[in-house]
Amino acid sequence: MIDSYAVFGHPINHSKSPRIHRLFAEQTRQDLTYTAQDVPSKNFKTSADNFFSHGGNGLNCTVPLKELAWSYADHLSDRARLSKAVNTLARQPDGRILGDNTDGIGLVNDLTLNHAITLSNQRILILGAGGATRGILAPILAQQPSQIVIANRTRSKADTLATEFAQLGNLRSSDFANLAQMQFDLIINATSASLSNQLPPLPANLLSADACCYDLAYANEPTAFVRWGISQHARFSLDGLGMLVEQAAAAFKLWRGIQPATSPVIALLNSERHLPPSS
Ligand code: NDP
């Protein structure tokens, strides 16, 4: 039987994951199927049980299923345990289901390998304190930035994350209003504001000289945050398409034991949208 993989989410019809994984499979000459299934939260367990009991090898889980996937896994990678969210499930040879979170390493690889943006010794601002921030914090802290500030509209959520991850590095929480007078070398937008073409209320002069901006969200046009980064003269103002491809590559490696080349896939997906050269 051909090895089978899928992405579960709700909604799922615009997911680029099937295309990305099919491109990886073609490139690495792997015989597999990868489908997308619309799975609302209430059906997650039944659908996952059904997928794995019919021989499914691995699942990607996206909004709103990452916390449910975390509870579903029989055992967890260290980074998934810390993030309390799972985007990749893998059936092991003994039948147990491993849960991993490849979002953070996807972001770090896109920043450091694809754009040569250094994280060590940098002052980093993360906007948002939801599931995506949970997933990226440990891999970013492992790069030893000099400081991370987490700013969130609901301050208490930023406080919780700063406390939970405090042992891993120099971490502080804030609300948006208290960011005035601070400066950062990298600002990561991990809010979902861009999905509704909105921007968190950011003070002027937040960026140091040569600072970069990165929006985890991605679209066919520059997001509100990418446009803001360009207006603030960021060295790079990027969206999360590269992270999407890199997190998929890390999942593919976990499942297949082969690291696919990400650059041609990113280049192909980028060529199909219309972004100005500075973003
Ligand atoms: P969550 O729903 O868990 O969290 C949303 C966060 O955004 C919260 O902190 C929320 O603040 C904040 N927020 C929402 N709207 C606004 C607004 N108008 N102004 C300010 N803050 C706002 O979402 P996720 O963490 O799962 O996802 C965040 C983003 O990351 C999404 O755009 C998602 O698409 C993207 N993502 C991209 C990936 C990639 O591979 N490129 C992978 C994973 C995520 P509050 O707590 O106050 O409600």
TrEMBL record:
Residues annotated as domain Shikimate dehydrogenase substrate binding N-terminal: 7-89
Record GO terms (molecular function): NADP binding; shikimate 3-dehydrogenase (NADP+) activity
Any one Pfam family match given in the protein's UniProt record, by short name: SDH_C
Keywords: Amino-acid biosynthesis, Aromatic amino acid biosynthesis, NADP, Oxidoreductase
The UniProt record lists the keyword Amino-acid biosynthesis: yes
Active site: K66
Reactions listed under catalytic activity: shikimate + NADP(+) = 3-dehydroshikimate + NADPH + H(+)
Keyword Transport: no
Broadest EC class assigned to this enzyme: oxidoreductase
Pathway this chain belongs to: Metabolic intermediate biosynthesis; chorismate biosynthesis; chorismate from D-erythrose 4-phosphate and phosphoenolpyruvate: step 4/7
Enzyme Commission number, as recorded: 1.1.1.25
Any GO BP annotation: shikimate metabolic process
Gene3D superfamilies: Leucine Dehydrogenase, chain A, domain 1 (3.40.50.10860), NAD(P)-binding Rossmann-like Domain (3.40.50.720)
Amino acids binding shikimate: S15, K16, S17, T62, N87, D103, Y218, Q247
Residues given in the record as NADP(+) binding sites: D78, G128, A129, G130, G131, A132, N152, R153, T154, R155, S156, K157, L216, G240
Residues of the SDH C-terminal domain: 240-267
Residues annotated as domain Quinate/shikimate 5-dehydrogenase/glutamyl-tRNA reductase: 118-194
Entries under InterPro entries matching the protein: Aminoacid_DH-like_N_sf, NAD(P)-bd_dom_sf, SDH_C, Shikimate_DH, Shikimate_DH-bd_N, Shikimate_DH_fam, Shikm_DH/Glu-tRNA_Rdtase
Record-stated family: Belongs to the shikimate dehydrogenase family.
Assembly and oligomerization: Homodimer.
Biological function: Involved in the biosynthesis of the chorismate, which leads to the biosynthesis of aromatic amino acids. Catalyzes the reversible NADPH linked reduction of 3-dehydroshikimate (DHSA) to yield shikimate (SA).
Name of the protein in question: Shikimate dehydrogenase (NADP(+))
